[in-house]
Amino acid sequence: MRLRVVTWNIHKGIGGIDRQYRLERVIAILRELAPDLALLQEVSDDLPRSRFHDQAEMLAEALGMPWDRVHDEAEVLEHYISEDLERMIAAKLGDPSRDPHGDPIPSEDLAMVADETVSLAELEPGDRARFDRVSDRDAEMLRFLGERGIHPGCELEVTGSDPFDGPLYVQVGGAGHALGARLAAAMRVTQLEDEA
User: Fold this and answer.
1) Is residue 174 in a domain?
2) Containing domain of residue 54, as a range?
3) Shared-domain flag, residues 182 and 129
4) Taking residues 35-48, what's their average pLDDT?
5) For residues 30-34, average pLDDT
6) What whole-number distance in Å separates Cα of residue 51 and Cα of residue 47?
7) Averaged pLDDT, 109-137
8) CA angle 130, 63, 111 (to 5 degrees)
9) Domain boundary among 77, 92, 107
10) pLDDT confidence of residue 67
11) 126 and 87 in one domain?
């Protein structure tokens, strides 16, 4: 078995003959190399100087890393990126207001948007909602949702529930799914108004 490994100090995304910051060059080269394993140095996240951006998650999303692995990878990298690189990555990604798991990202002045979500477990059969976020601490939970095409931004309808901490049944994109009580409690949603 062959394994393609890339280890690269991206020097805060600054490189090339022009010595300009161009994170898109880093992403393009990584896509071209298509490594099985990429070890990048000088990447950071979750620090006040970076508006608490999780840049490792953002890079992982741009490169197609499965979302159940992003958190663990980001934990490893969190102290290895400069403020400049954090700002540049955020700008390149359009200054997102939410990370890939749906959690809000504070503004540059560290203000947080109000969280008006509720737990999916609080909804009743017939209620419709938009799935906004879920904790990134449980990779199995993320993998379970991802395999079913359930991700932040998708709309769902509660179709039923079983008593005594039984599953909650939801319809997402035309497919029915049973979600365990612990998972339904961890999922944060915005309830949608009924169409009149």
Assistant:
1) yes
2) 5-92
3) yes
4) 65
5) 80
6) 7
7) 85
8) 50
9) 92
10) 62
11) no
Determine if the pTM surpasses 0.90.
no
User: Do the beta carbons of residue 158 and residue 125 sit within 8 Å?
Assistant: yes
149 within domain boundaries: yes
106 occurs within a structural domain: no
Q: Are residues 75 and 123 in the same domain?
A: no
CATH code of the domain in which 183 resides: 2.30.30.90
The 3-state secondary structure of the chain reads CCCCEEEEECHHHEECCCCEECHHHHHHHHHHHCCCEEEEECCEECCHHHCCCEHHHHHHHHHCCCHHHHHHHHHHHCECCCHHHHHHHHHHCCCCCECCCCCECCCCCCCCCCCCCEEHHHCCCCCEEEEEECCCCCHHHHHHHHHCCCCCCCEEEEEEECCCCCCEEEEECCEEEEECHHHHHHCEEEEECCCC
- Please tell me which residue, 116 or 70, carries the higher pLDDT value: 116
pLDDT of residue 123: 95
Structure tokens at 20: 């300009």
Q: Is residue 125 domain-resident? A: yes
pLDDT winner (highest mean) among 135-139, 148-152, 175-179: 175-179
Percent of the chain with pLDDT over 90: 26
Instruction: Compute, in degrees rounded to 10, the torsion defined by CA atoms 75, 140, 185, 127.
Output: 120
| Summary mean pLDDT of the chain | 76
